[in-house]
Amino acid sequence: MTTRQIESPRTILEAFANPKPRRDYTVEFVFPEFTSMCPVTGQPDFATITVTYVPDRLCVEMKSLKLYYLAYRNKGIFYESVVNTILDDLVAVLKPRRMTVVGQFAVRGGTAGTVTASYERAPSGATSNGSGRVKGNRT
Fold first, then answer.
1. Segments forming the whole domain that contains residue 112
2. Residues noted as catalytic
């Protein structure tokens, strides 16, 4: 991985043409080996990241998604930022109809944290600010 890719993980993501763009169907990827660093303590944070989306014209290429996750390995970042950044990056690259990213972070200090962020494209003719809704707890 290049320094540029580590500094800007979005550049790692690749997409391919949706084979059935006229059909709504759900794609789900579960990555149980996500690691980042706590920006306060420098300790590793372990999580399972689940991405669920309904593609429009593009689908994410799975190997690039795995490499994208690996770029976070030594990055100091809070749970909320991890999940929202993943959502923002995937939405920017794929422009899906809908997407949800869930980060289930392992127990640390006696507490487990789950952060969920969602995006839904505005219906045709409407405008959207593109922001996700976030709910969850951080440890």
1. 3-18+25-136
2. 38, 45
